[in-house]
Write a structure and sequence with these properties.
Blueprint: H1 13-26, H2 38-51, H3 60-77, E1 86-90, H4 97-100, E2 108-113, H5 115-124, E3 133-138, H6 144-156, E4 161-165, H7 174-185, E5 190-198, H8 200-216, E6 237-244, H9 245-251, H10 257-262, E7 278-285
Parallel strand pairs: 1-2, 1-4, 2-3, 4-5
Antiparallel strand pairs: 5-7, 6-7
Helix pairs in contact: 1-2, 1-3, 3-9
Amino acid sequence: MTEADPAIRNVSDTALWAAHYRAVESVRPDALFRDPFAERLAGERGRRIAAAEKRHFRADWAWAMRTVLFDELLRGELAPAAGTDLIVNLAAGLDARPYRMDLPASLRWVEVDLPGILDYKEELLVAETPRCRLERVRLDLADVDARRALFARLGGESRRAVVISEGLLLYLEPDQVASLGRDLAAPQSFQRWLVDVVSPGLLLRMRKTHGAQLQAAQAPFHFGPADGAEFFRPHGWQPLLIRPLFTAAKHLRRLPLLLRLLSWLPDSPGPGGKRPWAAVCLLGRD
């Protein structure tokens, strides 16, 4: 790897990074999930991105917990009684849930992302069969008019939709997250939104660890609201369930040694301030 060929070239490369850590978890004897496509999708560059992290920073447990919690909350929303007929996966990247999860064949799943990353994914999975009705929409979510038109169309074609934005909001400015939230709240059928949120304290640590390479790739971290999931309430969404990554990792025995020792300290409430805190949150229409 050289300055002319950095590990992370653009924001789409962060999808390779995430896929690498899904592959790492998948090969463990005690894996919390199995993603048989992750290693193929991550490729050599995904491994290089992970290798470029600071040596003292072990991120595998956090990446795994984020996937575990998204899976868990999504399964709850796909229970027959919920009546969900549409999943809208924003910045879907290299997520393989339509291929690896036990899904109703009648479920409609729409992946939205930039053309390059979806073309790459489609090429590598061309021989695989999704377990539901999978569609891909090539769209830049920064194009506000285009995304509003997409949301209006999908909203009119569904009875109850769940939106996923795993790993997306961290790269947006707070006003961009607020705008996206208001646009998602416009279609009446968009009933749930799954998001991941970090605190200002964790955002600062992540910037120190990854900031230089992400800044060079024009993909810096931005979003770490002091009020956590309450940030979304003025924009049409209320927190229904908040699952902190650290707590889940403690219960599932995924914390590195130092963090296992720290886990015995009293838990401080709330996501604000300098506290390193992250969670997967289920939001409902306000």
